[in-house]
Amino acid sequence: xxxxxxxxxxxxxxxxxxxxxxxxxxxxxxxxxxxxxxxxxxxxxxxxxxxxxxxxxxxxxxxxxxxxxxxxxxxxxxxxxxxxxxxxxxxxxxxxxxxxxxxxxxxxxxxxxxxxxxxxxxxxxxxxxxxxxxxxxxxxxxxxxxxxxxxxxxxxxxxxxxxxxxxxxxxxxxxxxxxxxxxxxxxxxxxxxxxxxxxxxxxxxxxxxxxxxxxxxxxxxxxxxxxxxxxxxxxxxxxxxxxxxxxxxxxxxxxxxxxxxxxxxxxxxxxxxxxxxxxxxxxxxxxxxxxxxxxxxxxxxxxxxxxxxxxxxxxxxxxxxxxxxxxxxxxxxxxxxxxxxxxxxxxxxxxxxxxxxxxxxxxxxxxxxxxxxxxxxxxxxxxxxxxxxxxxxxxxxxxxxxxxxxxxxxxxx
Length: 413
Known about the structure:
Number of helices: 15
Oligomer: single chain
Distance between the termini: 14 Å
Mean pLDDT: 83
């Protein structure tokens, strides 16, 4: 993802001027905001059983905590950049950070499941708005001498740290002090970041506006549409099942909390290697990279019910799952840059919304199957999405290789 996003930024015609007022602390402030947002979004995965038991709902129903933010983010990502028009992006970032702080605080004290869902709905607004604007601002937030590629990588490091540290630590805190403590601490982190933002984030006047007619830019390009089909199938498979990973480990495998936290940490660490692999491999052939990622997912979903009930098998398959997911968004973004480079900037808000729809739909599908059947049935069911994705890669997208000029552009980074 880092490589992809850096190239998108360099493709823009409105790069940050040399006189940028950005600084390292402004850039790090936004990176920590990304850490807090991603932790907030996926923290329920590690504490779903505890929330379900405490608020007297089923695990599948508790999965709405993941579905609702995705739904709201899917609307906010394309609509917010259009709606705010000429608003100084400094105030937009601060407002979204404040929204995250408030949403997590409400979650931490929610007296019932209905109020908790309301807080998650509010969080989705912050998630969608942040991702639709933050990446484009990374170059202007950084010191003037820092390349845009490194600035973008710094912001995206917050996402990686959230996967590696945020969710596992949140799960550990939940086991030790209760799930409400995890969300309360995330809210406090957000508040500290908000104070830093008021002090260090510079004025970020918009240089151009995105209009509604610009949003479907990627949908107008055939090669981009082919990629979207593959992304949709793989994304639905992952998000349908990953949302219920902890219930599987607890209910089907019978692992204790310490083992589950270790497995989630393993998932995150493997994701770092998956991201690095995809950045290199997609430069060579993004279609074959997608095929390899899909095959990794297929091995995971087929093997999990059989082998992940044992500790060694669980660690191996969870690492493979984390590797595949770490590679997935990176490959998805690079596909769009290679095959629709001139449409990416204006199409990015809708692309972010597309990802959020996958998260929401996946959690909803997974919740229904878990409630009415079990986690094993869920894993075997999503395997069909992966099979369709592989078929699409080798039929619908057959022969679609990296354009030479774009490949050279990325390789020169």
